[in-house]
Amino acid sequence: MTAALTLEAATKTYDDLHALAGLSLTVEPGEIHAIVGLNGAGKTTAMKAAVGHTALDAGSVSLFGVLTADAGASEFARLGFVIDQPFGYPELTIRDNIVHAGRLRGLGRDEAAAAAGVWIDRLALHPWARARARELSLGNRQRLGLACAAAHEPDLLILDEPTNALDPAGVLLLRDALVATAARGAGVLVSSHHLDEVSRIAARITVIHAGRVVGTLEPGQVDLERRFFDVVRQWDAEHAVDLSPTARNAA
Amino acid sequence: MTTALALTWATFSRSLTARIATALVAVFAPAFAIGGVALARSGAITGPSAVKFAPFATGTFAEASTLLLGQILTVVMVLAAGFVAAWLFGREWADKTIGSLFSLPVSRTAIAWAKVSITSAWVIACVTFAVGAAALAVATADASHLDVATWRSLGLDWAAATMMGLLGIPFGWLAVVTRGYLGALGGIIGITAVSQILASVGVGRWVPYVAPAVWAGAGGDQASSDIGAAHLLWALAFAVLGAWAAVSAFARARLD
Asked: Which of B87, B71, B62 is nearest to B223 (CA)?
């Protein structure tokens, strides 16, 4: 089966900061793959490389088996993502934002309108459906961003720290949406600092550190935070000599 | 392109920038032109301002109105269209919506051309409305002089103002390369100030932001007649090149 997303030996340097140092990972159809790591570990940079926000210095990114350099409308129509900032024009209503996001991802006008209704229901956005995005709380803007990224039912969903502003109700809604997305066969790549949360939904948890994959965690394990730090500290201990000061900063 | 146009129109039509710019062009410009001429002829203006308004106190009301309209519209259009283009491109960074426009079936090239198309259509619509409103006012105030010469002057106003409006689009490029609209706003103010100084003394025929304004009479009759087709075509070509540069920069932008 072709992976929904493949990052192969991805390398990215900003001046002398090694944001990605040969990172490789895949997201298979039907799985939720969580990546965890400290701030600056390379999670967001990897996601940004996957969607073209940033160009790699070396390595490759493939969407559905097609190198992103060769990817076109048919591959991009199967992709949804929220990285850094959720989609949402402040002057448009929630409903209009979702409709336009759906249309940008290839839905027809009627399909997009129907999808907007479905996702307003699914993420309990009814009270604000006619409100402009600028009037929303950060948590509701995050819900809106998820709706915009997922309204076209993508085959690959990439979410960078999607729960960081959500209230407990929002977290539950997001969890249900991600599980449903994977259940219909889509691949989901999600980054998070909430290890317990990802442990509940992820099929795979990959630890990113110093711009590369340094280990995995078993979903459902107890005391996941301690295990996470064990992996990171072990890698640091084994590679202390290799790390330049700038690389250590990146980590 | 339809999807990109729909999105651009949805955001543009709800934008405060667009509404203010539309009012500035469609209401302020013809009102100030007609009102300015009426004021110049009323004898109410005294002191240094009287000297500035003197050219509009002579000739027919229609002649003076079309002359002042052209001078106002050419300045206002580059400012207003520049603000609109700067907002349309720069807001994607200012509002952090640019990230969501990557890896879409609708390319960023199409989205950028939609911004250029909406701005161009808005320029033509606003200038047409402003010139039409002025023509109506002239017809009301001085119907006997709404002759071929007046229509020719109004046509010149329309062409020069449209050209200056289209010259606002290249500021979209400045917004893209400076990742926001503030840099572009600085550029608009700077270029407009320099251009107006050059136009007022009738020099700078090969400067794109000067030629249409001088053609409309900003530097006097002699300077206006010195503007040829080559100067105007160069100004138009500059607008097209600037629009292409804005589209190209927007399509190639990265978020490193």
From this structure: B71
CB contact under 8 A, B100 and A79: no
Q: Are residues A71 and A175 in the same domain?
A: yes
Structure tokens at A13: 């340097």
pLDDT at A10 over 80: yes
| Number of structural domains chain B divides into | 1
Q: Which of A106, A128, A153 is the last residue of a domain?
A: A153
Query: What is the ipTM, given to two decimal places?
Result: 0.89
**Number of domains, chain A:** 2
Nearest CA in chain A to B8: A100
A34 lies in a domain? yes
| Mutation for A interface: B11, B16, B103, most A CBs within 10 A | B103
Average pLDDT over residues B41-56: 81
Whether the predicted pLDDT of A163 surpasses 90: no
Domain of A147, in residue numbers: 88-153
List the CATH number of the domain containing A41. Answer: 3.40.50.300
Which of A124, A153, A182 corresponds to the end of one domain? A153
Q: Based on the domain organization, do A67 and A184 belong to the same domain? A: yes
Q: Are residues A91 and B14, on separate chains, in Cβ contact within 8 Å?
A: yes
Same domain, A233 and A116: no
In this complex, which of A54, A96, A105 lies closest to B104 when CB atoms are compared? A105
Whole-number Å distance between alpha carbons of B74 and B195: 11
> In Å, how far is A227's CA from the nearest CA of chain B?
32
Burial class of residue B206 (count of CB atoms within 10 Å of its CB; 0-12, 13-18, 19+): exposed
Chain A's closest residue to B108, CA to CA, is A104
CB contacts, 8 Å: B15 with chain A: 91
Q: The pTM is what? A: 0.91
Average pLDDT, chain B: 92
B15 touches chain A (CB under 8 A): yes
**What is the rounded CA–CA span in Å between residue A80 and residue A156?**
6
B47 pLDDT tier (thresholds 50, 70, 90): confident
| Contact yes or no for A54/A83 (Cβ under 8 A) | no
What is the nearest CA distance from B21 to chain A, expressed in angstroms? 17
Q: What is the pLDDT of residues B143-195, one digit of tens each?
A: 888 889 999 999 999 999 999 999 999 999 999 999 999 999 999 999 998 98
Instruction: Name the pairing type of β-strands A156-160 and A32-36.
Output: unpaired
Residue-wise pLDDT for A30-82, tens only, equals 999 999 999 999 999 999 999 999 999 999 999 999 999 999 999 999 999 99
- Give residues 63 to 102 of B whose Cβ lies within 8 Å of A: 95-97, 99-102
